[in-house]
């Protein structure tokens, strides 16, 4: 009985030691900026969904997965939004979600982290790495991609290649989820 109790306590302690806090998104914004004809075009994506398992003390064990609805692209101009949904750009009929999934999170100190992620956009998955902050349940970060790496649009003299993406997620903790060893 004594050995069984010690074994059980060891297993429970192992689960507690690797537990990650699950964060439930309460509000989120995913925005982008690109140059077109020399002017900055700003837009957003709606339909945010996230699975956020994150412990600031053990970020290397974290799992951050977020996605947005590609069809919910919004630049404030309906005709432009419709154009961006077409096959040449986002191809929302074939690829309805844009997904970002962590592969490694590293602490930099003072609530700052560096994340290595896989970005899946229009059927292409590429690595992206960027700094982000986490403070009181709020994740803030951003990165730049080359739209051509994901087959979004063709070579263009008037449309910029670099797209700046900014992510802001406010979340609240939910009961801890234990990670199996």
TrEMBL record:
Residue span(s) of domain Lipid/polyisoprenoid-binding YceI-like: 22-172
Signal peptide range in chain numbering: 1-19
Keyword Signal appears in the UniProt entry: yes
SUPFAM superfamilies: YceI-like (SSF101874)
UniProt superkingdom: Bacteria
InterPro entries named among the record's database cross-references: Lipid/polyisoprenoid-bd_YceI, TTHA0802/YceI-like_sf
SMART domains (UniProt xref): YceI (SM00867)
Key words, A-Z: Signal
Record keyword Signal present: yes
PANTHER family referenced in this protein's UniProt entry, alphabetically: PROTEIN YCEI (PTHR34406)
This protein's name: Lipid/polyisoprenoid-binding YceI-like domain-containing protein
Organism from which the protein derives: Arsenicibacter rosenii
């Amino acid at each position: 009985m004594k050995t069984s109790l010690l074994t059980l306590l060891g297993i429970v302690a192992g689960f507690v030691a690797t537990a990650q806090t699950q964060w439930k998104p309460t509000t989120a914004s995913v925005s982008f900026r690109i140059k077109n004809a020399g002017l900055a075009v700003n837009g957003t994506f709606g339909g945010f969904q996230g699975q956020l398992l994150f412990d600031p003390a053990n970020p290397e064990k974290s799992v951050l997965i977020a996605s947005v609805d590609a069809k919910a692209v919004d630049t404030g101009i309906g005709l432009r939004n419709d154009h961006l949904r077409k096959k040449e750009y986002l191809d929302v009929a074939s690829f309805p979600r844009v997904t970002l999934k962590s592969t490694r999170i590293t602490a930099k100190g003072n609530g700052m982290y560096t994340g290595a992620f896989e970005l899946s956009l229009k059927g292409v998955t590429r690595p992206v790495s960027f700094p982000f902050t986490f403070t009181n349940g709020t994740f803030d970060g951003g990165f730049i991609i080359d739209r051509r790496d994901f087959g979004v649009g063709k070579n263009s003299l008037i449309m910029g290649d670099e797209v700046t993406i900014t992510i802001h997620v406010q979340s609240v903790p939910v009961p801890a989820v234990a990670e199996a060893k």
